[in-house]
Fold:
Amino acid sequence: MGTRAAKYLLKTKNKDISKIYQEKTIELATYYNNHSIEAITNFFADLLSLCTLLYLLITLSIQINITKSFLLEVFFGLDDSKKSLLILLITDLLVGYHSSNLWELFFEFIFNHYGIPESQTGIFLLVATLPVLLDVLFKYLIFRHLNRSSPATVATYQAIIE
Structure:
């Protein structure tokens, strides 16, 4: 009787373990299925938002030009030191090297938003290169236009940086 009872207990224990494995497998499959559906939904929602933004930019081009001319008039109405300080503030806020934690959070959010598996190496590589590239691009674009319209602002900006 003792061996028969031990075999019965072993069979029921194996059935319980296999049932637990099945439940956990179904739970994981459901979780990853919902995660994939959310990532696909996010992609198409962002694509629709981008199309809507492009449509608005095309149809509201007159209002955008008016706003742009107003902002340029305000910016060029400032004296050179204020222009330089504003440029420095904006570029440091957007692509400052001191904000690596913010860039890491941004890339983790993007990866999670689109369902891409997180890779710390990939995130660190993006954080190391993207801000530098954006900083160079911003400086090139700013000084390409500022050298023509306000050379004193460029000289003041370079003096502030040094």
